[in-house]
Amino acid sequence: MRGGKKPIHAFVAVLGFSRALFVYFTDNMRYDTLEQCHRLAFEYFQGIPIDIWYDNMKTVVLERHAYGAGQPAAPAP
């Protein structure tokens, strides 16, 4: 696809209850593109959800403290 010259990124939004799906493909992961993807998703869903959850994307997550400050992301058992 596209000859492997430039990666393609997918913005995926899923509504929690109905599982309605919105997918938008883009060639970058800049903040302005992320904002545009959100606007397109909100227009598609005809509304804005109360909560939005992200899956560890670099554009949104600056630092992760899931297990406390200074702890590894996946502590050994």
Automatic annotation (TrEMBL):
<keyword id="KW-0812">Transmembrane</keyword>
<dbReference type="Pfam" id="PF00665">
    <property type="entry name" value="rve"/>
</dbReference>
<protein>
    <submittedName>
        <fullName>Mobile element protein</fullName>
    </submittedName>
</protein>
<keyword id="KW-1133">Transmembrane helix</keyword>
<keyword id="KW-0472">Membrane</keyword>
<feature type="domain" description="Integrase catalytic">
    <location>
        <begin position="3"/>
        <end position="65"/>
    </location>
</feature>
<dbReference type="GO" id="GO:0015074">
    <property type="term" value="P:DNA integration"/>
</dbReference>
<feature type="transmembrane region" description="Helical">
    <location>
        <begin position="7"/>
        <end position="25"/>
    </location>
</feature>
<dbReference type="InterPro" id="IPR001584">
    <property type="entry name" value="Integrase_cat-core"/>
</dbReference>
